[in-house]
Specification:
By secondary structure, the protein is of the alpha/beta class. It has three domains: 174 residues, Aconitase, domain 3; 95 residues, no CATH class; 116 residues, Aconitase, domain 3, CATH 3.30.499.10. 42% of the residues lie in helices and 13% in strands. The chain has 15 helices and 14 strands. Strands 12-11-10-13-14 form a five-stranded parallel beta sheet, with helices on both faces. The chain has a four-stranded parallel beta sheet with strand order 8-7-6-9. Helix 6 crosses helix 9 and helix 8 packs parallel to helix 9. It is globular and about 65 Å long. The chain starts with a helix and ends with a helix.
Length: 394
């Protein structure tokens, strides 16, 4: 792999021990995947934030890094933590968990990483441009940036994303290269998609079917950004899809090579079967929206549905702190709290310790959450559209 003189100095340790270690990791990854050079990145998004995910070893690693005056070189955002960083007491998060989570957050802050704690950085001020090279690690954000925006990133691990942030570079391989962004399977959708959960169910089914291939969708007549993030998040969770194209909707769909693709057809029956397979058919203890983190449009929609009602089981809406502050100003938060719900910032149902907070059955409209909750949080899942879940809650 070709390295510039400046990059050779980093590898030789002239820029310090931490940069050398981090750059060596990036070079080794580049060697494994046949990269020809390193490339600068415009931004980074780091995962491995929740104490539930990384535990004491991860916490100690981050504290060691931050103690050596390590600073990131590019705009770097943080994935969700394991709790609401400001209102964790009010929401009932365990005290000992909170203590350890705050250690992690302080370590990231010392390195100059923006404590956004969101899986939707593109809704919170980190919006890459078309064809910009970035290094993001949250699977749903990787899918959205590659597919809906047309930026370029591989699905980074937590350590490699942190290394890219510290060095300002990543290796030029995988989805950074145009030839690797071509589809290899066609998905023909023969049914209408109405709810975000419909896109999530489709994504769950496609991800499970195609694994890590790049799908090209036809038959999806429309889809807003919330629906497309639901689709991509579910495909990344049930499979390992980091890029998809949709005819007439996504920016690279008219530029790619679509010849000689294997075709898979999906209709109403397959979608209904997916709902059924993801549903425990029990009564939920709690309903949680916002996986990936809810947009202001989604918060507004839920607000309208529960306005003036009294919830019999709690509703949480997980979102970024930025969206929460906008919801506060619009008085959505007041309406939701009067009904008995909460807007929860900085975390989500997958990386928070909800299994230790008295919940056993969780209602979701997210294909990603429906995939992860049974294993990560020991939850039974009620997977349904937003109207059915709100009806369950009231």
């Amino acid at each position: 792999m070709y390295l510039t003189k400046e990059e050779e100095k980093i590898l030789d340790g002239e820029m310090g021990e931490v940069q050398e270690r981090m750059f060596r990791l990036l070079v080794r990854l580049g060697d494994i995947y046949g990269a020809d050079k390193m490339i600068p990145v415009g931004s980074v998004q780091v995962a491995g934030v929740s104490y539930k995910s990384i535990g004491d070893p991860g916490t100690e690693f981050l504290e060691d890094m931050s103690s050596k005056n390590t600073k990131v070189k590019v705009l770097t955002y943080l994935n969700p933590a394991g709790m609401d960083l400001e209102n964790w007491r009010k929401l009932g998060f365990p005290k000992n968990f909170a203590k350890n989570q705050l250690r992690i957050i302080n370590a990231f802050k010392k390195m100059g990483i923006v404590i956004t704690s969101t899986c939707t950085p593109y809704l919170a001020g980190n919006l890459p441009r078309f064809r910009e090279h970035i290094a993001w690690s949250e699977s749903s954000a990787v899918s959205f940036s590659n597919s809906v925006i047309g930026a370029r990133t591989n699905r980074e691990g937590g350590p490699s994303a942190l290394a890219a942030a510290i060095c300002g570079r990543t290796a030029n391989y995988g989805l950074h290269l145009w030839e690797n962004r071509q589809p290899n399977v066609r998905i023909k959708v023969n049914t209408d998609l109405v709810y975000n959960s419909d896109f999530g169910a489709l994504g769950f089914l496609v991800g499970k079917t195609v694994k890590n291939k790049i799908p090209y969708f036809t038959g999806i007549n429309n889809g807003d950004t919330d629906q497309l993030k639901s689709l991509g998040a579910a495909m990344a969770a049930s499979g390992a899809v980091a890029l998809y194209h949709i005819e007439g909707l996504t920016p690279e769909a008219d530029l790619i090579n679509k010849k000689d693709l294997e075709t898979i057809e999906i209709g109403k029956k397959e979608l209904n079967d997916t709902y059924e397979n993801l549903n425990s058919n029990e009564k939920p203890d709690i309903v949680i929206f916002g996986c990936p983190h809810a947009s202001l449009r989604e918060i507004s929609s839920i607000c309208e549905k529960i306005k003036g009602k009294k919830l019999k089981i709690p509703i949480w809406i997980c979102t970024s702190r930025l969206m929460k502050e906008a919801a506060d100003r619009m008085e959505y938060t007041d309406v939701i709290e009067k009904a008995g719900g909460h807007i929860v910032s900085d975390t989500c149902m997958v990386v928070s310790p909800i299994e230790n907070m008295g919940y056993n059955v969780t209602g979701v409209n997210s294909g990603k959450a429906a995939n992860y909750l049974p294993g990560f949080c020991k939850q039974k899942v009620v997977f349904a559209n937003i109207d059915k879940l709100v009806e369950e809650a009231i």
